[in-house]
Amino acid sequence: MRMKVCQQLLGRAVSHRGASCAVRTGSVTPDTGRWRCAPSATLCSSSTQDRKSRPSMLKHLSTKIRSTGPITVSEYMREVLTNPVAGYYVRKMMLGAEGDFITSPEISQVFGELLGVWMVSEWMAAGRPGRLQLVELGPGKGSLMADVLRVFSQLRSVVGGASVSVHLVEVSPVLSRVQAETLTGTGGQEASGEPDPAGPEYRRGETAAGVPVSWYRRLEDVPAGFSIFVAHEFFDVLPVHKFQRTEKGWREVLVDLDPADPGRLRLVLSPGPTLASSSLVQAGEGRSHVEVCPEGGAIVQLLAHRIRQQGGAALIADYGHDGTKTDTFRGFKGHQLHDVLSDPGGADLTADVDFSFLRRMAGGGVACLGPVTQRAFLKNMGGDARMQVLLRNCSDPSSRKQLIRSYDLLTSPAHMGERFLFLCLLAPGRLAAPPTPTGLKLDRKSPAPLPVAGFSELRFS
């Protein structure tokens, strides 16, 4: 369902950039939905020297397992991805041609622009609060937020009365420096002096337009206030517990040392129930294998609480399912599928997001919309119209071809169009019709609430 207000916003947002036909390139791994760059053995593979120079995550894990026994998949993911010394996200640039994957904002400017229009639309629907915090969880290279801020700049006549600030939740020191370069042009340096080491804000800066930008390691540290949150490819890297149904009941999948080769890891089943298998698997679960992300559930609960108490909205976009898939835990290295237990710390680990679980964890205090497919969301937002503007103003045949190809990667069911899903959390009163004034005779019905951009199906948690 196309909303008139969003079409108007989109038209105004793109009119100042209509002559642009900037192209971002990338492709998608057909069987996984994970973005990868054009093949390049030199750029996409980690060198032997790189493996030798970094601290040994395998040695660290082996010591831990020998001391305490097999560890959960959740603990394995947490150590491999965010260990402060040797974690994948702490030490490595994982995005782009030089990394292990590439995300939608790197593929096409249209993606971030449409999310920017969505944010403006929800701010307007909330009554245009005087202060607006744009909060992104896991901002990648900062490309998405840069596109969003460009839309806000082009809609100054609409949002100019609001005090806008950007708040980025990022654990990777490497990526935070890249984001600072993208958004503030500071080359990764502190733009306002050294932050307080004990304080929650570890980096700060300001865009060329004067929008303040702050970095945090936890969502809890973002200041209170009306906020619009976006989490794109954030929940898929949060640690999951894995459970397998057996004749004796649910057993948790654990990571252990291979007795035949102590230098290798293997997956095993717990001999009996664990606290996680007894508490995290839903009663009546029909699948034989289940992945549950408690940390993702806790973050959704925090988002719901903040939206309920302070207003705002949250948009979660990730590849996932609605409670139907089973074993989705996998690794990526050099833009290719990679054994999850091989070279820990040197490859990305991910699991599809269970959106039915996120909806359930959000609770009844907020409105939950979706999930809808990325194809439906982008087209409902006016993505086709934006593409026509770009194509009309792009005379170079090669660039036109790449524009079409990039948008097809985002929307085609064969690529990312149906692999990625969008879920929205809104304040409980967002979809309620305004009350009918008493003591007046009205010839028409009370005005209906504004529809939510991008979503054609409305559901409440």
What's the topology here?
Blueprint: H1 4-15, E1 27-28, E2 35-36, H2 41-44, H3 48-53, H4 57-68, E3 71-72, H5 73-82, H6 88-91, H7 104-107, H8 109-125, E4 131-137, H9 143-154, H10 156-159, E5 163-169, H11 173-184, E6 201-206, E7 212-216, E8 227-232, E9 241-246, E10 249-258, E11 261-269, H12 275-279, E12 289-292, H13 294-310, E13 312-321, E14 330-333, E15 336-338, E16 348-350, E17 353-354, H14 355-362, E18 367-373, H15 374-380, H16 383-392, H17 397-411, E19 420-426
Parallel strand pairs: 4-5, 4-8, 5-7, 8-13, 13-17
Antiparallel strand pairs: 1-2, 3-10, 6-7, 9-10, 9-12, 10-11, 13-19, 14-15, 14-16, 18-19
Helix pairs in contact: 1-8, 1-9, 8-9, 13-14
**Strand count:** 19
Beta-strand share of residues = 15-25%
Largest sheet: 9 strands, mixed
The oligomeric state of the chains shown is single chain
Global mean pLDDT: 84
Helix content: 25-40%
Shape: globular
Radius of gyration: 23 Å
| Uncertain spans | 16-20, 25-51, 457-461
- How many helix segments? 17
Q: Between the first and last Cα atoms, what is the distance in angstroms?
A: 21 Å
State the secondary-structure class: alpha/beta
Put the structure in a nutshell.
The chain is 34% helix and 22% strand. With 461 residues, the chain is α/β, with parallel strands linked by helices.
Give keywords.
9-stranded mixed sheet, 5-stranded antiparallel sheet, 461 residues, 17 helices, alpha/beta
Describe this structure in words.
This protein has 461 residues and is α/β, with parallel strands linked by helices. It has 17 helices and 19 strands. The chain has helices spanning 4-15, 41-44, 48-53, 57-68, 73-82, 88-91, 104-107, 109-125, 143-154, 156-159, 173-184, 275-279, 294-310, 355-362, 374-380, 383-392, 397-411, and strands at 27-28, 35-36, 71-72, 131-137, 163-169, 201-206, 212-216, 227-232, 241-246, 249-258, 261-269, 289-292, 312-321, 330-333, 336-338, 348-350, 353-354, 367-373, 420-426. The strands form 4 sheets. Strands 4, 5, 6, 7, 8, 13, 17, 18 and 19 form a 9-stranded mixed sheet that branches. Helix 1 (4-15) packs across helix 9 (143-154).
